Amino acid sequence: MTILDELKWRGAINQQTDEAGLTDLVKNKSVGLYVGIDPTGDSMHIGHLIPFMILKRFQLAGHRPYIVIGGGTGSIGDPSGKKSERVLQSMEQVHHNEAAITAQMEHLFGQDGSFKIVNNYDWLSKMSLLDFLRDYGKLFNVNNMLSKEVVASRLEVGISFTEFTYQILQSVDFLHLYQAEDVQLQVGGADQWGNITAGIDLIHKIKGADAKAFGLTIPLMLKADGTKFGKTAGGAVWLDPEKTTPYEFYQFWLNQDDRDVVKYLKYFTFLSQDEIADLAKKVETQPEKREAQRRLAEEVTEFVHGKDAVTEAENISKALFSGDVANLSANEIEQGFKNMPSVEVTGEKRNIVEWLVDVTSIESSRRQAREDINNGAIRINGEKVTDVQAEIDPSTHFDGKFVIVRRGKKRYFLARVK
Fold this sequence. Notes:
This protein has 19 helices and 15 strands. It has helices at residues 3-9, 19-28, 46-60, 91-109, 121-124, 129-136, 142-147, 149-152, 161-164, 166-181, 193-207, 246-254, 258-268, 273-285, 291-305, 307-322, 330-336, 352-359, 366-374; strands spanning 15-16, 32-37, 64-69, 116-119, 183-189, 214-218, 231-232, 235-236, 342-345, 350-351, 378-380, 383-384, 391-392, 402-407, 411-417. The protein is elongated and about 85 Å long.
């Protein structure tokens, strides 16, 4: 089975420019291929991850992946998928984002030298305006450019000349990599088809019609309910653990719909066909066990954040389900209770009734606090407290940083010690 056969089985191919030619190429050589990403932010989210999973599969199959950080193209803005002009970022912000995304790529693709990260600012910034117009602008027909979906979709509301030229710059990227690095394949999302084919046309015009350059796009990822994949009520799911904690990341995958989980196993894991077929059967016969979702969460979280992050996420999940939070680390508390009600407290010892009412306002009155304590409805750091004379000492657990209160079966509160 070739890498292309595997991608077809995984449902990961939308369009190819020359299927027969590309099939022959991957059978006979280690192919150079690339995916580009503009540094419009300082982290990727899981939507960005989709084409890079394809690049990773090519890497594992012995091919030569290149990652193009768009320091040049990112400074002007890709019109793809946008209904209006992007706000230009300062070059200082662009460079900051470049460094952050480069670090994420190095984590995902390893340190063994089997891939290369390049920045298109390195060659685009050296091009003069006259060179751009004479060497490349002359080769692009405006009528053809207007027919590309990425431009046509913006004509009604308008598009600046700056963003209009984006497809030329991306085409120059492909040509540069073709000439300098023997890169023959560009991979991108479905919305990049017009830009990719423009790059192939440029290579053919400069290097000849028989130049072997190819394009491959990935289907638009939609959930079973028809909505766009990767968005939650809280916004994007980020790869940066400061924006989306590993626990939140793990929970995102764990909570996937039965109708979607097999598709995501194919897209986002490196499990074999037999392993995925076995999990698909369990979705049909034992959906209540959610084994497929758990395996999906484990695999993707380990790929993005490492094995320790999976262990932490599982510890937090088990603790929150059982209420046994005493053995969680301070870092696990920070992740698991990030979105729960919280209050700041001092480190001084206080009577539990006073602390619940006067310090934290977790209880509305001292009468209610005493009643809940007497009824066994209050747990402090995982331990049931039934003595209204008990003291709260914030220094005793979680490095003195937190006190966890559970009222009833499911209501958690986090007290952060100042």
